[in-house]
Design a protein that fits this description.
- This protein has 287 residues and is an alpha+beta fold.
- Helix content is 30%, strand content 27%.
- It has 8 helices and 10 strands.
- The strands form 2 sheets. Strands 1, 2, 3, 4, 5 and 6 form a 6-stranded mixed beta sheet that branches. It has a 4-stranded antiparallel beta sheet with strand order 8-9-7-10, sandwiched between helices.
- β3 (53-57), α1 and β4 form a beta-alpha-beta unit.
- The longest helix is centred in the middle third of the chain and has 16 residues, at 105-120.
- The two termini are 30 Å apart.
- The model has no long low-confidence stretch (mean pLDDT 95).
Amino acid sequence: MKIINLKSFCKINLTLNVTKKLDNGYHSIQSLVTFCNIYDKISIKKNSQLKDSILFTGKFKNGINKNNNTITKLLYILRKKKLLKKKYFKIIIKKNIPHGSGLGGGSSNAATLLRFLNYKMNLKINVKELYKIASKIGSDTPINLYKKNTYITGIKDKFFRFDRKFKLNILIVYPNIICSTKKIFSNNKNFTKFKKKLISNKLKKEKIINFLKRSNNDLEEAVIRFYPKVKKLIDLINSQNGCYFSRITGSGSACIGIFCDKRSAIYTQKLIKLKFPKYWCVVSKTI
């Protein structure tokens, strides 16, 4: 097996509503998820030794547990199910997506590798079982299996994929704060009533933008309570010409801004780099 290079794309929560807290301590959410053209790079090849070699490189390699991460969890599950038949791998992951930012980098890594192993190495895992394996790794991992716009319904394990692409101009700013998902959810005080009506797959872009502008992220208040500078960043992005709206993605701390055109997004990127030169700040487009 020669070296195979994979792209593990960045996840964005355009909206996120917490509808209730479950008896098991977790939460039920409704969220509109998209993906953008920012990605970690995964290189994989077979290892002649009877063990896996997993290496994280790149700007955001720090803070990842080398012995217990989404990749080690995935390989453990597949071996426990006797699906890899003594195959071992050398895997290098270049982390271009910040860890602990709400951008789903780790979940995307595992989902990307799971799909590759299943379809390219003929593991013959059916779709239902594929989702079941992904859910054992993390709640975001099943969403990352297919890079399509997805509406998480808030009903157990149910979501809808959209065939259409949103083609949104997006600015992402990470203020170097690692947010604990568990901490943010456990301190959340905002709940939104469950909505049966989904956003339509046939909506024109203008109506999609209006829907997003009326929406929010319920976790934002909890994040700001712990990290006030996140609000300053959101307000700054919101105040720029051409910005439809700005909010956190996931449980933070990365903030997004959706712009009417790429030029406005790039102008805001330059402004933020002047004011906050240590922040990670990129302009991209949803895929």
